[in-house]
Amino acid sequence: MKQKLLFSAALLCFYLAEAQITYQDINPDFSTTMDPVTESADNLMPIDLNNDGTREFYFRWDDMEVFGNESWFVHFCSTPVSDPNRQFMLVPGNYHNLLVYGTPINASATWSSNWDPTIDDSYTNRFQGLADRYLAFKAVISGTTYYGWVLISFVNKTLKVKEYAYTTNAGGLTAGQGALNVTENVKGNLILFPNPALSEITVSVDGNQNTPFRYQILDLTGKKVTEGTASYGDPISVGDIAGGSYLIQIETNGVVHTRRILKN
Q1: Cα gap 71→62, rounded to integer Å
Q2: Consecutive sets of 10 residues in the chain, 264 residues long: mean pLDDT of each?
Q3: CATH for 183-263, among 3.40.1170.60, 3.40.390.10, 2.60.40.3080, 2.40.50.1020?
């Protein structure tokens, strides 16, 4: 038993030493529908990579009439404007490259710093008939390079943002890497129960019982409330935490997953 525990601890330390992939499941999906009466919506679903309170990326749409005809555009943008430290993978015409699962996102890709490239518009309808697609982004913040992806869908002028992930690994990542439904590190569906929790909460993943992980529980401002290590299938004590909504970050095999929990 002692040898098993030492092996598990060593394995966990090895994984934590690897460059992380930070994964955010947006649950429920962020959804916004373009509307010619409203005409525009800005600063949608902002992404703050280093948690300093300043967005690096966000979505925007415009739905209006131009020369008597309806004209609409949906964008994935960067802040600051046209900053060479904020980049995207694009195709000709200043359009986002709509990536499929497994596409490499790294230094070898062709990057552009155009600040508001288009996902789709009324002139091309390039997203129509497609399934979910990934958008790639790159940011350099205080000398650290981030590579990431965002999974979206776009049907009937409704944009849905479903999940995103990023890493500071120099080798980058691939589109979809880090998501629970496709990760090679964690198989099955992650379940937290009971949720809401009273004194304990258990994290379970099909086929990964007893696998060690590290966790942090954060309040909704991002302040750490508690942290520790556990294994899938084992209860985590939350009895000393005040009632309310929290985020739990679960780190295993170099991947961080975030879920919302309620404490009664």
Answers
A1: 8
A2: 39 42 88 93 95 94 80 95 93 93 91 94 87 94 96 94 94 84 49 89 74 83 84 90 88 73 90
A3: 2.60.40.3080
